[in-house]
Specification:
This protein is α+β, with helices and mostly antiparallel strands and 211 residues long. It has one domain (39-210): 3-Layer(aba) Sandwich (Pathogenesis-related Protein p14a), CATH 3.40.33. The chain is built from 6 helices and 9 strands. The chain has helices spanning 21-25, 46-63, 73-89, 104-110, 158-170, 173-179, and strands spanning 2-4, 9-10, 70-71, 118-126, 134-139, 144-146, 152-153, 186-194, 202-210. The strands form 2 sheets. The chain has a 5-stranded mixed β-sheet with strand order 2-4-9-8-3, sandwiched between helices. Strand 5 and strand 6 form a beta hairpin. Helix 2 crosses helix 5. The chain starts with a strand and ends with a strand. Pfam families: CAP (PF00188).
Length: 211
């Protein structure tokens, strides 16, 4: 049965540019060692996911003449915890129920970093690389998917997931604004897998920004 993809799910983001052609010409996505590895349905490599998302975000910031963001382990930890909560609960929300990290302010404080401002993007997409394309379900129980032409479709790699997620955020005005804010310095991203979601799993994502 042919199944068109549901669009990437995004919520309103939390938060509060000119683009010279010369600046765009020298911008490229930094390669991350190991990013072509397929994502396991059991466990995420949070450091690898964080690095892959950061590379995509800094590419877009470069294209708009903005400075690169630097990674912060404390933010990655909080982003991973929030994504894990969303995956467990099946809720895409900036507000959680896990103690001191129930909202963005709590997560920023729990990161251990000093801050004046912050922002957060969240999203969810399929574990298998089905987003934005038409596909056939050959076996739902065995997670076998193909294109209409019969080409197999596997799980996302860290790179493909990061690339698609950031591209979708850039196409959403509020999320795009967060990515391109000039007064941000650090960021951290993390994910959580919900294995029993439709079509063999979903990945919930959180990226926290700090300035």
């Amino acid at each position: 049965m042919l199944r068109p993809l549901l669009p990437f799910v995004l919520t309103a983001c939390l938060a509060m540019f000119l683009s010279p052609a010369a600046a765009q010409a020298k911008c490229s996505v930094q390669r991350v060692s190991g990013e072509e590895k397929s994502i396991s349905h059991k466990q995420l490599n949070q450091a690898l996911l964080d690095a892959a998302i950061l590379a995509q975000v800094n590419f877009y910031r470069c294209k708009h003449g903005l400075s690169k963001l630097t990674p912060a382990g404390g933010l990655r930890k909080q982003a991973s915890k929030h994504s894990a909560w969303m995956a467990r609960s099946g809720k895409l929300s900036h507000k959680a129920t896990n103690g001191s990290s129930r909202n963005l302010t709590g997560r920023l404080k729990s990161s251990g970093l000093r801050f004046k401002t912050g922002a957060e993007n969240i999203g969810v997409m399929r574990l298998y690389n089905l987003d934005g394309r038409r596909f056939l379900i050959r076996s739902s129980g065995k997670c076998v998917f193909t294109t209409p032409a019969g080409e197999p479709i596997g799980r996302h790699s860290y790179r493909s997931l990061a690339k698609l997620a950031v591209r979708e955020w850039m196409e959403s005005p509020g999320h795009r604004k967060n990515i391109l804010r000039r007064n941000l310095r650090h960021t951290g991203a993390g994910g959580g897998i919900r294995p029993n979601s439709q079509h063999c799993g979903a990945v919930f994502l959180t990226q926290i920004f700090l300035g």
